[in-house]
Amino acid sequence: MKPGIILYGPPAAGKDTVTAALAKADRKYEQFTRMKVGTGKTDGYRMGAVAELESLEAAGDVVYYNERYGNVYVIDRPGLADAFAAGVPIVHLGQVAGVQELLAGYPAEWLTVLLWCPRAVTEQRSQGRGDADTATRMTVWEETQADLVAHAGFRFDLTLRTDLTQPPQAARLIRQALWRRSEGPAA
User: What GO molecular functions are on record for this protein (predicted)?
Assistant: First the structure.
């Protein structure tokens, strides 16, 4: 099976920054571009219409979707197939249920990584990057923390505190964990 990476964490935990560090270390690492049905920011998304989402659902090609910020974000089977054909996809998620559905719904050698930082760091980062909806992102941070508590039995393969780990180091640790996983148990 081909390797893939799932980065889970609250807003401003460093998913984009760590993804950029991974891509800088090796161009085979690339963020999975989710389909977005809605309005607002279009950069970094494959914008879709409701009819496209309905067509994917009818074909059984929606692996996971969630609604946030008034939009629908979709992880779809054809998009994942394209991403795996191009290299090692990095999927960003903020719900443990999404991680579980992706693990169950799309066979791959997934490495699950929890990226975490304290609430105050998230708030500082959100304000620092000019988010107009920092208050909403803080609510999502709290929902992410509650999500982790609700799914306390779920174990990530790797946990990184992004307020204590620089992006190049995080990328190195993720690459090492992925490599160890692909090597399998020692004989």
Answer: kinase activity
* Domain boundaries, given as residue ranges, for the chain: 3-32+87-180
Q: How do residues 89-107 score in pLDDT, each as one tens digit?
A: 999 999 999 999 999 999 9
In this structure, are residues 92 and 14 in contact, taking their beta carbons and an 8 Å threshold?
Answer: no
Angle between helices 134-150 and 119-128 (to 10 degrees): 150
Q: Is the entire prediction scored with pTM above 0.85?
A: yes
> Under CATH, domain 3-32+87-180 is a member of which superfamily?
P-loop containing nucleotide triphosphate hydrolases (3.40.50.300)
Backbone angles phi, psi at 161, to 5 degrees: -85, 110
Question: Which tokens sit at 91?
Answer: 């999927």
Gyration radius of the chain over CA positions = 16
Angstrom distance (rounded) from CA 171 to CA 47: 28
Q: Phi first, then psi: give them for residue 97, nearest 5 degrees.
A: -60, -40
